[in-house]
Amino acid sequence: MAVAVGDPQPGNRNDTVVYRTSGIDQKLAGRPVMADGAYRGNPEVIIPYRKPADGRDLPAWKEDSTASTAPSAPGSNTAWPG
């Protein structure tokens, strides 16, 4: 596992913008990158599946996949397990 850390950014900056403008995206190019839901819409990272807007439950395979990414991801305030 590679961990990329950049300089602190203002809290009001969008996570995806910081990911791209900091150069971390280039440092991690070609590697799978896990992130939290704040990276939604960024095809370069793996994020947890979200519950559908109509309130339906996620299919079991998506629920299992999402559970395997918890409890944290790059950019979150929780440390990686291990």
TrEMBL record:
Can you tell which superkingdom this protein's organism belongs to? Answer: Bacteria
Indicate, by first and last residue, each region the UniProt record lists as having compositional bias (Basic and acidic residues): 51-65
Region (Disordered) residue ranges read 50-82
Biased segments, Low complexity type: 66-82
Please state what the protein is called.
Answer: Transposase IS4 family
